[in-house]
UniProtKB/TrEMBL annotation:
<dbReference type="GO" id="GO:0004519">
    <property type="term" value="F:endonuclease activity"/>
</dbReference>
<comment type="similarity">
    <text>Belongs to the DNA repair enzymes AP/ExoA family.</text>
</comment>
<feature type="domain" description="Endonuclease/exonuclease/phosphatase">
    <location>
        <begin position="4"/>
        <end position="248"/>
    </location>
</feature>
<feature type="active site">
    <location>
        <position position="106"/>
    </location>
</feature>
<feature type="binding site">
    <location>
        <position position="7"/>
    </location>
    <ligand>
        <name>Mg(2+)</name>
    </ligand>
</feature>
<dbReference type="Pfam" id="PF03372">
    <property type="entry name" value="Exo_endo_phos"/>
</dbReference>
<feature type="binding site">
    <location>
        <position position="247"/>
    </location>
    <ligand>
        <name>Mg(2+)</name>
    </ligand>
</feature>
<dbReference type="InterPro" id="IPR004808">
    <property type="entry name" value="AP_endonuc_1"/>
</dbReference>
<feature type="site" description="Transition state stabilizer">
    <location>
        <position position="149"/>
    </location>
</feature>
<feature type="site" description="Important for catalytic activity">
    <location>
        <position position="218"/>
    </location>
</feature>
<keyword id="KW-0464">Manganese</keyword>
<dbReference type="InterPro" id="IPR005135">
    <property type="entry name" value="Endo/exonuclease/phosphatase"/>
</dbReference>
<dbReference type="InterPro" id="IPR020847">
    <property type="entry name" value="AP_endonuclease_F1_BS"/>
</dbReference>
<feature type="binding site">
    <location>
        <position position="248"/>
    </location>
    <ligand>
        <name>Mg(2+)</name>
    </ligand>
</feature>
<dbReference type="InterPro" id="IPR037493">
    <property type="entry name" value="ExoIII-like"/>
</dbReference>
<feature type="binding site">
    <location>
        <position position="34"/>
    </location>
    <ligand>
        <name>Mg(2+)</name>
    </ligand>
</feature>
<keyword id="KW-0378">Hydrolase</keyword>
């Protein structure tokens, strides 16, 4: 079983890229982020024609998350994180697919920091951690995939001082991600590639793709019941090199059935 996460950065603008990648990579499940489309604008017909059922949570102009499943319909279980009924940003969706509870998440960027956007980022991660702990307690197979907007460690960013003040690398952001993993989740990409420098995002500015000046922001975390099923993981970097591409590349894992 192949499960992937992809910050598409505009599902309609980059629909051709998505369809090309789906046909080439053949993932069984895909978590999408940054749809930048309302519910009514989601390209359901094109996704269905590619062989995938889908559930999604859209939003005008920004945010938006979705889960695609090849040959079946994901069973929607949750839209939005619990803990703040006033939060209207479309950043979290959950669905059951083939016996696994899948979450697609798009965490807040948090810039500029300090300030209200960074405060919201940390509060959102706290809510995610609380909900993740409850999912672990349920003792069902769970996978949390998406753009966490956190660079976990210094080796997950190219050598630079230009990000020193960025919310993505702040100690508080890294501590939130570390606290989540230490609940008992497995960082699948890092498990398969323990020593490699891994990037999943390259900013459009300053020729960062051409210079391979990247960051690791996209992560797939596995609960205990899935850890022993992990057989592989990787990054489809070539998608980032397409003309007009998203600034993220798809990240994928494979699991034994």
């Amino acid at each position: 079983m192949k499960i992937a996460t992809f910050n598409i950065n505009g599902v309609n603008k980059r629909l051709d890229h998505l369809l090309i990648w789906l046909a080439a990579a053949g993932p069984d499940v895909v978590c999408l982020q940054e749809l930048k489309a309302t519910d009514g604008q989601f390209p359901e017909a094109a996704i269905e024609a590619a062989g995938y059922g889908a559930v999604w949570l859209g939003q005008t102009a920004w945010n938006g998350v979705a889960i695609l499943a090849r040959g079946c319909e994901p069973v929607l279980t949750r839209t939005g994180l619990p803990g703040d009924p006033s939060d209207t940003q479309s950043r979290y969706i959950e669905a059951a697919v083939n016996g696994i509870l899948i979450a697609s998440l798009y965490a807040p960027n948090g810039n500029p920091q300090p300030g209200p956007k960074f405060d919201y980022k940390l509060a959102w991660h706290q809510r995610l951690n609380l909900h993740a702990a409850a999912l672990l307690e349920a003792r069902v197979p769970v996978l949390l995939a998406g753009d966490y907007n956190v660079v976990p460690e210094p080796r997950d960013i190219y050598p630079t001082r230009s990000y020193d003040g960025n919310a993505l690398v702040q100690p508080e952001s890294r501590a939130a991600f570390k606290s989540l993993v230490e609940q008992g989740w497995l960082d699948a990409l890092r498990k398969v590639h323990p020593q490699a420098q891994l990037f999943t995002f390259w900013d459009y500015r300053r020729n960062r793709w051409q210079r391979d000046a990247g960051l690791r922001l996209d992560h797939i975390l596995l609960s205990g019941k899935l850890k022993r099923r992990l057989t592989g993981a990787g990054i489809d970097r070539e998608i980032r090199g397409l003309e007009g591409a998203s600034d993220h590349a798809p990240v994928w894992i494979t699991l034994r059935e």
